[in-house]
Automatic annotation (TrEMBL), chains A, B, C:
The keyword DNA-binding applies. NCBIfam families: pcna, PRK01115.1-5. Keywords: DNA replication, DNA-binding. The lineage of its organism: Archaea, Candidatus Undinarchaeota, Candidatus Undinarchaeia, Candidatus Naiadarchaeales, Candidatus Naiadarchaeaceae. Sliding clamp subunit that acts as a moving platform for DNA processing. Responsible for tethering the catalytic subunit of DNA polymerase and other proteins to DNA during high-speed replication. InterPro entries: DNA_clamp_sf, Pr_cel_nuc_antig, Pr_cel_nuc_antig_C, Pr_cel_nuc_antig_CS, Pr_cel_nuc_antig_N. It comes from Candidatus Naiadarchaeum limnaeum. This is DNA polymerase sliding clamp.
Length: 248, 248, 248
């Protein structure tokens, strides 16, 4: 079993692991010739994260056969936090440890222990009647606005508009964006939908917005949501969240 | 009763409400054709704040008759904090709520409940023998310097100089500025004065310094002080503070 | 006894006193015609600091005879923190107090009490087989990297390389820099050395890195270290630290 990969954009790895780290404690990465993959439920079993760091994001990517690398995510983030954005970063399996090397003005290396865990999470099969391509910061605005009045957010869409709103305690907030607005890049809706989601999860997901200025949001009616961030040819990061089943 | 006003500088509203919010919990705004006015004692009855946001600060300002709008100031600041400085902001009375809309890349709106309160505070009648027009940051320096050694500050002025000083526990600090110094824009004194004030209040007032690079300070001998910040044709914000009656 | 000195770079004084202030509570400065000197053990008697602010760092420096000035270091740092980097700063002995004046847009002055203490610390006599001239930020990187896995750092050097590393709990980190690397300005080693040091002290010392982009590190085998920061003709700041006597 041999794995060695070099990436010149440590931010890509650091920021995606950071977003993931708020949801899970241990990460099981599947490494194949296509890249590095992670799929996991959060510890409360309410959300799922899928991360795909493509081999094409790396300067070099060598793996002899499919393998799984399990580590404590806190170990990994504390190491990645130490990278400078000008460093190039090498990941390598060595002596049953994950060896991470930063190469910049100096050579700096970190070893973290491997865990004995397997990835068993299957991708859920979901179909969404609504797809919204939107500036990531708009979603962030809606989430932070909603937080003023509630701990949940109502996401609604129809063929012409997307609305994020919250209500509580005689207070209300609403962000509405319509087809034709510059920040709403695309809106495809085959029906009118409405679902309610817990804000605490969305606040974690939206951290990934720093990776990509645009996000794809998939919605249904009283149905889970899926939020995707992509960096072309490099990274796909998806978050799936169950709706809150309750009347407004 | 109809009220709708649009302002293109949300910072003006946000920063003045922020300065006021450290003193009071509920705000009763009087809205007339001239603009929006607030006059209130702080909850400890030691200081008074007067705010006048002139109709000319707004892009449009429509009110059919004099009316009072009372809201929780925490509600208001948490909403205004969400504005971007490029947003234009609409205030409107609607369905017995204050409706605030941000218009930028998207339309975002917030509703906060009205309170059933009246403004009853009368303006005190004060005459000051000393008026000092000075850079706001100089006052801020004097306050922060004084805080190192005491919880009170001594303000002194005569025909030629203005002094902010503090003493305590074998430590001393003094900021002195004289006629002719560039940062002392104007000094009018008909007599020599000295008063002592609690620093905690001054630290709250001086937050308004970010609204205006210059301040007008009015002083008397063992007498209240009045600190004014103005943005020409837009905003007047005044703080009045009772002196500490004590020997040094 | 007369002492008055004016310095146009308040940062020089503030940053060096700041670095020192994490180690000691009272400072006894020896003032001579050559400048201002401080030598002290930290309160746990594990490290020693030596500071020399040369008379040539000052615009004017007048002292009639060698004298000692003892102050509470908290008093001094809280005053120096109030200086703007464009202020010129005057230190003066007056009425048995240390009088510090900032001269900028205004004149601001602070008086702090003198303490009745003497400096009795002798310089230790140490000889180091290894001297390393290195960018300060490299040392800072090594210290912060090590902190992820341990509370101690192993410093090693031989004729060709300098290594900072840490181990703990199945985790490892290593920063290695070799002769010829740009960030390693000079490496003189007459033998191979290795010593272990507590990270908490190094984290305090390295604050002085903001004063000087380069540092001189002196090492021996299971022997104290000495870390020097210099600003040519102005400042010398040295930290000496006892090694941890333990097997890895």
């Amino acid at each position: 079993m041999k794995f060695k990969a070099v990436i010149d954009q440590p931010d890509l790895l650091r920021d995606s692991i950071n977003a993931v780290s708020t949801l899970i404690n241990e990460a099981v990465f599947k490494v194949t010739k296509s890249g590095i993959e992670l799929r996991a439920m959060d510890s409360a079993n309410v959300s799922m994260v899928e991360m795909r760091l493509l081999a094409s994001a790396f300067r070099s990517f060598d793996v002899d056969k499919e393998t799984e690398i399990a580590v404590n995510i806190g170990d990994l983030t504390s190491v990645l936090k130490r990278a400078k954005s000008t460093d190039s970063l090498t990941l390598e399996l060595k002596d049953n440890q994950l060896h991470i090397e930063f190469s910049g003005e100096t050579k700096r290396s970190f070893n973290i222990p491997l865990l004995d865990l397997k990835q068993e999470q299957k991708a859920p099969s979901l179909e969404f009647p609504v797809m919204i391509k939107i500036k990531s910061e708009i979603i962030e605005d809606g989430i932070n606005d909603a937080e003023i009045v509630s701990d949940a957010i109502i996401l609604e869409a129809d063929t012409s508009a997307f609305t994020m709103r919250a209500e509580g305690d005689n207070r209300k907030t609403e962000l509405k964006i319509e087809k034709g607005d510059e920040a709403l890049i695309e809106l495809k809706a085959s029906s009118k939908v409405k679902s309610i989601f817990p804000l605490d999860y969305l606040k974690k997901f939206i951290k990934a917005g720093k990776l990509s200025p645009e996000a794809n949001l998939h919605l249904g009616n009283e149905y889970p949501m899926k939020l995707d961030f992509k960096v072309l040819d490099k990274l796909q990061l998806s978050f799936i969240l169950a709706p809150r089943i309750e009347s407004e």
